[in-house]
Design a protein that fits this description.
6-stranded mixed β-sheet; Rossmann fold; 507 residues; 22 strands; globular
């Protein structure tokens, strides 16, 4: 591989924004037939580098080489013409159009009569999907597909344009384990056919499995170039944060025998069926299962988002009925939602406004909010969670994903909730922010709080849970001590109800 000419190369590429040096003399070589991991904490310069390659912005200085020749990627169309396709974390598909229409959107085949050749759209889309070994109909409406299938449609768009370089930005953030494996199989196939793949992800366990080489950024600079860092989690973490983090998952075991919540036969119209479990004081109860298994739906049933059609919730020994979310909040429950952008944040507010949003009564008098008291009350939380200093200077839309997530969690800490339901709390955030969340979980359970942890990251789920409840088709099939499970056990258990019979622990 070293003897090959790089397909793309950055030579001392620099890009600055007002007050921020985002990329500082970046040097990187992207080889054909290689999956190259681009890693670093939020704010390290990864997004700036991606935007430069995608033609969204131009560098201030330095050179970009294509097959050894200098080029200027002046705009996204130039990038596409040069064979670069970018699949961003937020999809660019049109959900109301068919799969075939999305694949060729902006590049529809035209008949000799000057109109769209719809039969060719279907034929060519079917060919591309067959090349990818994907069983999706070109006629299917894209918005009806699973998130994993929508991700594959995005990649199919790149293949249809004969892209020789594909940039994937957090490609598995919303995928389950089976979908991740399917995506990785596709990427390996594309690599073997000579495609260069730039793979950006915060999920270091999967990076370890899929990439051939890594480049690590910190504070806008390359701190470890390809070949200088072994592809293992400990080496990568040390390079990313600039120090040796001895404990990636700093789990404390604070579980007691005291039952704080019991679910008996819960069911909803959202396909939750006969869900029963108990939650102890100081416990982290993990919800494991494949994407679409019903984990989030159970969380919504507990929090009053979805009304129960049958069953009972017993809180601290007393039956309760949550007709809406405010009832659950008043009873001491909190929900950190999976989709923080749409369900968890007010983007036109600063950190303090977001943190106090669920507890304004204690900061108001005669219906008037005391802004000074609000700021003082949230200062300690912002400091303890190491939220960026910019959080009180800018609205949250300008903050990194990690800071946004910590602000959502801080809201419920401020409300002093006794039971926190964390739905994918570390999705899309960097390793430093993840460890901050893990330490926060320990702090909460140490204080007697209880956690329900929904996570698609199996390593995280096993490391940070006391017990794991296996969710399948809207019900809990088994509850197992986390220490009795391995990563492979969890994958099999999620797909096989009989697998854990010998390991069952009464919940």
């Amino acid at each position: 591989m070293e003897s090959k000419t790089p397909l793309w190369e950055f030579v001392d590429v620099t890009k600055a924004y007002p007050g921020v040096l985002a990329n500082d003399e970046i040097c990187i070589k992207l080889m054909p037939g290689s999956i190259h991991g681009l890693l670093g904490e939020n704010g390290c310069g990864k997004s700036t580098m991606i935007k430069t390659l995608a033609g969204v912005q131009n560098p201030d200085s330095g050179k970009i080489l294509h097959n050894g020749q200098p080029v200027i990627i002046g705009n996204p169309q130039v990038a596409r013409d040069l064979g670069i396709a970018t699949v961003f974390q937020e999809f660019s598909i049109v959900p109301t159009l068919s799969v075939g229409e999305n694949i060729f959107l902006g590049n529809m085949p035209i008949s000799r009569f000057g109109v769209i050749d719809w039969s060719k759209v279907d034929i060519d889309a079917a060919r591309v999907l067959a090349e990818m070994n994907i069983d999706i109909s070109p006629d299917a409406i894209t918005g009806t597909l699973s998130v994993g299938d929508q991700q594959l449609v995005e990649i199919a768009k790149a293949i249809a344009k004969d892209a020789r370089m594909i940039i994937l930005d957090e490609p598995t953030a919303a995928l389950g384990e089976e979908e991740i494996e399917r995506l990785h199989a596709l990427l390996r196939n594309m690599r073997n056919r000579g495609t260069a793949i730039l793979y950006v992800s915060h999920r270091l366990d999967e990076v370890e499995r899929i990439v051939d080489e890594v480049t690590i950024l910190r504070n806008g600079r390359v701190v470890r170039a390809s070949g200088e860092t072994e592809i293992n989690i400990s080496e990568i973490v040390s390079a990313m944060v600039g120090e040796d983090i001895g404990e990636h998952y700093p789990k404390e075991h604070n579980i007691t025998d005291k039952v704080v919540l019991e679910a008996k036969g819960l069911a909803t119209k959202s396909n939750v069926t006969d869900v029963s479990f108990v939650l102890h004081s100081g416990e982290v109860l993990g919800f494991g299962g494949v994407l679409g298994s019903g984990r989030t739906e159970i969380a919504h049933a507990l929090f009053g988002v979805d009304q129960l059609t049958s069953g009972q919730i017993i809180l601290k020994g007393k039956p309760v009925r949550f007709r809406q979310e405010i009832d659950a909040i008043n009873a001491g429950l909190a929900l950190v939602p999976e989709n923080r952008k749409y369900d968890g944040l007010f983007f036109n507010f600063k950190a303090s406004g977001n943190i106090t949003a669920a507890s304004l009564g204690g900061l108001s008098r005669f219906g008037v909010l005391n802004l000074k008291a609000e700021q003082q009350a949230t200062y300690e939380l912002i400091r303890d969670l190491e939220i960026s200093n910019e959080a009180e200077e800018k609205t949250v839309n300008y903050l990194s994903g990690g800071n946004q997530q910590k602000i959502v969690i801080a809201r419920w800490l401020f409300s002093d909730s006794d039971i926190l339901i964390l739905d994918e709390p570390t999705q899309g955030i960097d390793i430093g922010a993840k460890i901050a969340v893990y330490k926060l979980i320990n702090k909460l359970t140490r204080a007697g709080k209880s956690i329900i942890l929904v996570s698609s990251d199996h390593d995280e789920l096993l490391a940070m849970s006391d017990r794991v409840a296996i969710v399948q088709q809207g019900t809990i099939s088994r509850s197992v001590n986390a220490s009795d499970l391995t990563h492979n056990d969890l994958v099999q258990a999620s797909a096989n109800t009989s697998y854990l019979k010998s390991q069952e622990v009464l919940a």
